[in-house]
Amino acid sequence: MKRILITGGAGFIGSHLCERLLDEGNDVICLDNYFTGSKDNVRHLLDNRNFELVRHDVITPYYAEVDEIYNLACPASPVHYQYNPIKTLKTSVVGAMNMLGLAKRTGAKILQASTSEVYGDPSVHPQVESYWGNVNPIGVRSCYDEGKRCAETLCMDYRRQNGVRVKIIRIFNTYGPNMNSADGRVVSNFIVQALKGDDITIYGDGSQTRSFQYVDDLVEGMCRMMATDDDFSGPVNLGNPHEFTMLELASEILDLTGSSSKLVFRPLPSDDPKQRRPDISLAHEKLNGWEPTVQLRDGLRRTIAYFEELLQR
After folding, report:
1. Among 23, 30, 57, 161, which lies 20 to 30 A Cα-Cα from 271?
2. How far apart are CA 118 and CA 216, in angstroms?
3. How far apart are CA 86 and CA 159, in angstroms?
4. What pLDDT, in 10s, does the model give residues 68-126?
5. Contacts (Cβ under 8 Å, ≥6 apart) of 127
6. Do the beta carbons of residue 181 and residue 77 sit within 8 Å?
7. Could you tell me if 266 and 246 are in contact, meaning their C-beta atoms sit under 8 angstroms apart?
8. Residues 120-158 pLDDT 10s
9. Is 83 a catalytic residue?
10. Can you state the angle between helices 296-312 and 186-196, rounded to 10 degrees?
11. What pTM does this model have?
């Protein structure tokens, strides 16, 4: 049994990770301030004697004896991270410093959840880990993009200067149950709009692309990354290399929901990437052949079922 701390553990991805690590017999501390996370995501775990739920903001230091840390704390959708951009930056930067400091003190291994947003609006396609990105440092999305880039820098400096065992993953668009219905992400937006019979909002002309990874595939990649040798820190892309336009995604969701919703088009937001697709060659090489196994249509079915139940509550 390992004692594992998960920051942002009551969030969309964190809640699935809590389940996985508890199922493997670990002692899990779930840390969350509930800005975007929800107790409902982990309520079914509260009776597990190996699970501890703590309300805490990573901007403030946290002290515990742990073997591993998964640092997932940070709002990840534009509507939430732009709500208070300074707080977003502090969560990414000060939060990472606090968790790295804890890892240094306890000798814990730490996994930093970074993002494909570090590549910005990429001029290299698909994106490889060696690409440094095309990021606007003063735009409306910069609080998130640059905050995550700085967190990666901190991880590598703590590794070089203090010998902290760090693991960096860059998460590409991920979807699945426990998503926040109001987070503004394209999958949840389209599904909720379709289920309600509302117009489906397409930003731009719908030709921009994303790659959609089901949450179970991401959690598997995260666990494999944490288990790698200490001499490998990453960063590693974790995402689905199959690319879809926004129009293709909307068509799939309309078909699966049987909705009569109409498509409406709005201007593309500032600094919104036109293309996003990971090169996962490094993940396949270093993570024992890891690659996504859940196809988009199957993952969307499971996610739609979750939102159908959620909207009926």
Report:
1. 57
2. 23
3. 26
4. 999 999 988 788 888 899 999 999 999 999 999 999 999 999 999 999 999 998 899 99
5. 116, 119, 237, 276, 277, 278, 279
6. no
7. no
8. 988 999 999 999 999 999 999 999 999 999 999 999 999
9. no
10. 60
11. 0.94
